[in-house]
Amino acid sequence: MYVTPEKIAAANKASLETVSSFASLSLSTVERLVALNLNTLRAGLTDTASNLEALLAVKDPKDAVSLVSGMVEPSLASSVGYFRSAYGILVDSGEEVSKIVDGQIAELNKSVTITLDELSKSAPAGSDVAVAAVKQAIAAANATYDNVTKATKKIVEIAEANVTSTTGAAVKAVGKAAKKAA
């Protein structure tokens, strides 16, 4: 098996495409995070201005305590919403990276299989057992990778469901506690 200039050029092109995909994904993720931060900042400034205006209009200290207590739950819900959105952006990005890596692994497996087939043609008699063993080891490694990937996705789904239910309950509990304190 010889490495030809065409094969080198194809490998370089594939590498550049992968780097380009990662760069594009990174920029897209940063862009989404910046947009989220700007929108959150804009909403926070608006909420702060209206809360400050409401506080300045209060004459009775008891009403001020009640008003501040009423601000706790929406503020906490806003914070939780921000973190969920940021987490969602990062999860989306991670899934895209995973797709790129899976594609690279598939290409590598294909390349190794082709190379093994080419080598086995010129290998001495009896080496087909070794080639078959290597192919079987590659297939086993791929199956293990697939199983680990599936298990990891299940664990992440379960963790996400738990975090979602826990944060929702925590926001409600804080809101009730703040209302009781008022």
What brief labels describe this structure?
182 residues, mainly alpha
What is this entry, summarized?
The protein has 182 residues and is mainly α.
Task: Set down the secondary structure blueprint.
Blueprint: H1 5-57, H2 61-122, H3 128-181
Helix pairs in contact: 1-2, 2-3
Task: Report the C-alpha radius of gyration, rounded.
Answer: 28 Å
Distance between the termini: 80 Å
Helix content: over 70%
Form type: elongated
- The strand count comes to 0
Regions with little confidence, pLDDT below 50 for 5+ residues: none
As for the number of domains, it is 1
* Mean of residue pLDDT values: 86
Order of helices and strands: HHH
Number of helices: 3
Let me know the largest β-sheet. Answer: none
Structural class estimated from helices and strands: mainly alpha
General description of the model:
The protein has helices at 5-57, 61-122, 128-181. The model has no long low-confidence stretch (mean pLDDT 86). It has one domain (5-181). It is an all-alpha fold.
